[in-house]
Amino acid sequence: MQEYTRYEKARMIGARALQLSRGAPQLVKTELKDPKDIAEMEFDQGVIPIEVKRPKN
């Protein structure tokens, strides 16, 4: 898994939490209800369907 800055991680989790709060299906089995907690779990397991594109220097 790629290393992300804390800003990239926050953006990915925030964007995924928004998707979950609007009805997107969960990608992990959990009893959690809070979209942010679910998004963090998905990030930790590496299944978040969001990628970071960085400019080439």
Task: Give your account of this protein's structure.
The structure is a single chain. With 57 residues, the protein is mostly helical. It has a single domain, classed as Alpha-Beta Complex (Eukaryotic RPB6 RNA polymerase subunit), CATH 3.90.940.10. The protein has helices spanning 6-21, 35-45. α1 packs across α2 (35-45).
Features:
57 residues; single chain; 47% helix; 2 helices; mainly alpha; Eukaryotic RPB6 RNA polymerase subunit
Topology at a glance:
Blueprint: H1 6-21, H2 35-45
- CATH topology assignment: Eukaryotic RPB6 RNA polymerase subunit
Q: Kindly state the mean pLDDT as a whole number?
A: 94
Shape: elongated
* Integer-rounded radius of gyration: 12 Å
* CATH class (first level) name: Alpha Beta
**Residue fraction in strands:** under 5%
Which CATH architecture?
Alpha-Beta Complex
**Tally of helical segments:** 2
Number of strands: 0
Could you give me the name of the CATH homologous superfamily? Answer: RNA polymerase subunit, RPB6/omega
Largest sheet: none
Helical percentage: 40-55%
